[in-house]
Design goal:
A hairpin with a 2-residue loop joins strand 1 (about 105-115) and strand 2. The chain is about 25% helix and about 30% strand. The strands form two sheets. The chain has a six-stranded mixed beta sheet with strand order 2-1-6-5-4-9. The chain is globular. It is an alpha+beta fold.
Length: about 300
């Protein structure tokens, strides 16, 4: 039986960010950073607002990631426009940035499954979680290029954000439902990689991400590559490279320990009958307002995954 939580029609939701999670030109990115800085300074000087610092994430914040305190100032007390609920990515950016919005958009008491046991989390027990904003990027796994377009689908009614610990092979699966036009966190399931969607590929990637020798052994010869043209803001250059050149072409950002994966139109768990094994996987790394965009295409041949192309 599907549990539906009751909530008031929210007056919320903020500035949509689907355009932020795409590749930007350096000029546009610089302009955006300046505008964000000015807006954060102005907001901080003209309003008296408190920031919830009880973040329960263990991920470290690096120098080139988003400034979480600034985001809290920008989004903490603002009203999110209704349009932000149309796309899950737009909603979730706002959800991750605002401790206030998190408490508004969670079905309390929140059902939490751990080791097969169910617990109920009350609102007072919730601690702000900034999810992928801590590291500045998120990932997605898609069977093909057409499937990747689901991120722009306004008709989907469920999605899952998965905090995956690649070393421990553990997952915190945050399942969201769209209820009465508003995205709500419906439940959290703590489980192993083996119990989530695309488990076969993610187990391979967990090894691939942390073992240099295994990486080279898992490369197709040659690997196709597409990189930005240094002489053009929007142009690209295509070519190929061989396993011995891997360190030169290896993506600058490739999660090795903690990663946040987003799956769409599913609860993220293998019990979903619609999810079938695939022999091709697009592993997409998308930056948050930093221009990062990397797509690695893997194909499975004779039960062995191989990297066949990289596009930046």
């Amino acid at each position: 039986m599907l549990y539906i939580c009751k909530h008031k029609a929210p007056p919320y939701p903020i500035v949509t960010i689907s355009t932020l999670i795409t590749t930007m030109s350096k000029r546009l990115l610089f302009t955006l950073c300046v505008l964000l800085f000015l807006l954060a300074w102005f907001t901080g000087c003209t309003s008296d607002r408190s920031v919830d610092n009880n973040d329960n994430s263990a991920d470290s914040i690096t120098a080139d990631t988003l400034n979480i305190d600034s985001l809290e100032q920008l989004y903490g007390n603002n009203v999110m426009p209704v349009a932000a609920d149309e796309l899950f990515d737009d909603f979730f950016f706002n959800f991750a940035a605002s401790s206030k919005l998190q408490k508004q958009r969670i079905c309390f008491p929140l059902k939490v499954m751990r080791d097969g046991k169910e617990q109920q989390l009350e609102q007072a027990q919730w601690r702000t979680n900034h999810f992928y904003l801590q590291q500045g990027y998120c990932t997605g796994v898609f069977a093909n290029e057409d499937d990747e377009q689901i991120i722009n689908d306004t008709t989907i009614r469920q999605a899952a954000v998965q905090h995956i610990n690649l070393k421990e092979r553990t997952v915190a699966n945050y399942h969201f439902l769209k209820l009465k036009g508003a995205w709500m966190l419906h439940n959290i399931t703590y489980t192993s990689i083996d119990n989530i969607a695309n488990a076969d590929f993610l187990n391979f990637y967990a090894h691939f991400a942390t073992d240099n020798k295994f990486q080279k052994a898992s490369l197709h010869a040659p690997v196709e590559t597409t990189v930005p043209d240094p002489d053009s803001d929007f142009g690209t250059i295509s070519g190929t490279f061989y396993p011995e050149q891997w360190l030169t072409f290896k993506p600058s950002v490739m999660p090795e320990s903690d990663m946040y994966n987003v799956v769409y139109n599913t609860d993220g768990l293998q019990k979903d009958k619609k999810l079938l094994p695939h022999n091709s996987m697009r592993f997409v790394i998308r930056g948050i307002a930093n221009g990062l965009s990397t797509t690695m295409l893997f194909k499975k041949n004779k039960n062995k995954w191989q990297l066949v192309s990289i596009a930046n």
